[in-house]
Amino acid sequence: MNHELRIMNILARGANEIFAGTAFCSEASLKKILLATSALLLFFLASAPVIAQSTMRNSSYIIRMGNLNTASGKATGAGGKLNTTVGQIAPGLYSGANYKVRAGFQYISSIIPFSFSISSNFVDFGVLTPTNPVTRTQTLTVNNQSASGYVVTAYENHQLLVPASGALIPDTTCDSGTCTESSSAAWTSTLTYGFGYRCDAVTTNYCASGFSTSTFYKQFADNSGSEVAQTVMSGTTARDQQSQITYKVNISGVQAAGQYTNVITYVATPTY
Predict the structure, then answer these.
(1) pTM of the entire predicted model
(2) For a designed S-S bond to 219, which of 64, 85, 171, 232 qualifies (C-beta 3.0 to 4.6 A apart)?
(3) pLDDT tens digit sequence for 38-83
(4) How many whole angstroms separate alpha carbon 108 and alpha carbon 123?
(5) What is the residue range of 180's domain?
(6) Does the CA dihedral 158-161-166-171 come out positive or negative?
């Protein structure tokens, strides 16, 4: 299942000023499951039969198991990973023509949903003036406890343009004229114009290659030009894996007036 996040970059220019902004709309359905790690068990002696619940919950937690294990978890090392259950009654996978039972901690991770989100749904670039680059940031977050890994790719529907006139703010080619959707390069000159992005680590680095130098940028892949969506971040199994995306736009003194728009789509895909 793909989780998509569409981004619309909106730039508008009045008689003497250019305004820019970015609007976001998420199509991902985000879910949270909280697993309780401990519980207080109260035992009563009575003649009534014992009733076991398959799911226990309150406003703070959900326990989706019929018993509490004495030990369980995921151990990792240089040589591999070990998913363990100790104390579970008859752990393992049991299946038949009309049923399937997954008993044990090692199957819990498979029911935790994969999710993808972005930090906010709008970025305002403010007033754009020639040779004064403007940057804004967003944070991409992936929660993955159900797949062995994931990849987040991105592409734009077209370069920033005014639909009525066809005027463009082109994708940047960086200072050397060599950066593309797949290759990064330095972009520091105020006389280099266009629109581009870079990716930075928040804590752990999940960004695609090409951004180790802080001045390096890339273009977004242009879908209208049949360019293939490019990976912006990837990782394995963990919660709150984050990358910071920096958007940069710079215009020349002859940039035509108008409302410039495009749509950027992020696609987060679990891998198994």
Answers:
(1) 0.66
(2) 171
(3) 333 333 334 444 444 456 778 776 666 555 666 766 677 887 777 6
(4) 38
(5) 3-29+114-271
(6) negative
